């Protein structure tokens, strides 16, 4: 396979529908590099009409795609993953240019995308059914899994590649055709991934891409009866809109929504490991990770040491344009995000929090044209402060101290969200008791990284429903059919 000239794609300004690129008839959205405000490409500003056309194309391709064996579908998926690997450098540059994260993180993301697609290419082969003992000798009970059907995928801007793979790979492996709607801030990664899928030879209509007006496209997804399932990652606010809209047709939904992840450090923890994990997770993607740490709860006996160690590491982070060598922290997604993060920080400071490092917007050269915020560590934070209650989604580590296991469990669970939590301790009893009592869909024990193809990623409470990854992620795109046989 030869590397594709992906840079030609960023200005293509076309939807991908039924196996062909359809130039925009509805204007374009400029895609901006958050590091310097430059326009890096454009995509169609499409709406309901384009979404309907893409759904129709997916619908036409559905029966044939579902009829192929999982092994046949896997051939296309492996070819896609191989092309993603061959083009990883290019893909990573596009991702960083529109999203801001350091190139090294974009390269890891490209590798993750390939891994998810490969893993599901194989897992599709294990979509087992069941036979269940019946009540009579001449009866048989069979349960067979079948693809849900045409699936719409709505993805966010923080992981523009991973989110497509985490939804698209299981959907395709299950035998569903897809219509993808990426976030308007980061549609170019989607354009590139879809172009590579086209090269991999997927049949026309199996993968379709539309970009543009989110609420119009979203409404078409929810009201078009040909769409059988919608998988969404984004804000809780939009997730709730989709739940309401799904009622009319009892549309199946998977939702990965906001989070408020606690990172709990007990006094017996390996402090070096805890500090490394805390900084690694919190400042990945400039703090814009769904399962990113929101608040660090540190036992009072070690809080001072922990805070000092974290602040020291954070102070040394190199901030800048993610395309530049050695940069560890890029910009946040836009100026609105900078303003929101700063507001929460300033409010916390007024209420008594102390800035250990950072704490301001970066506006001097070379940051003035981008949306940069200085990596920040706050101590003296209390859980009443907004910075502890809301999903910050920026490079800020608020540190709260606690004195007992019971207290910290109550504090950590006192949120309407329930995506991820992290615990650092060497006490085996505590590992189990605390993990079991934390009201979150995922718990990282002595580790703060979670997203891998084989594990079920997802949240409880207002963080969503459904799981991505593992056999659970495949089941999200399958119905089960019970067949009662009389011989
Ligand atoms: P974020 O805060 O991450 O931008 P959003 O929920 O606004 O979260 O966006 C996540 C995805 O949902 C994006 O692709 C966005 O375009 C899309 N989106 C936004 N509003 C709607 C809507 N009303 N219906 C469907 N999708 C939407």
Automatic annotation (TrEMBL):
Q: Which UniProt keywords apply?
A: Oxidoreductase
Query: What Gene3D superfamilies does the entry give?
Result: Aldehyde Dehydrogenase, Chain A, domain 1, Aldehyde Dehydrogenase, Chain A, domain 2
One Pfam family assigned to this protein is Aldedh
State if Oxidoreductase is listed as a keyword: yes
| Protein family according to the UniProt entry | Belongs to the aldehyde dehydrogenase family.
Q: Which InterPro entries does its entry note?
A: Ald_DH/histidinol_DH, Ald_DH_C, Ald_DH_CS_CYS, Ald_DH_CS_GLU, Ald_DH_N, Aldehyde_DH_dom, Aldehyde_DH_Superfamily
Would you tell me the protein name for this molecule? NAD-dependent succinate-semialdehyde dehydrogenase
| SUPFAM superfamilies according to UniProt | ALDH-like (SSF53720)
Specify the Aldehyde dehydrogenase domain's residue ranges: 21-483
Residues of the active site are: 256
For the biological process aspect of GO, one term held by this record is: gamma-aminobutyric acid catabolic process
Species in which this protein is naturally found: Ferroacidibacillus organovorans
Please name the GO terms that the record assigns under molecular function. succinate-semialdehyde dehydrogenase (NAD+) activity
Keyword hit for Lipid metabolism: no
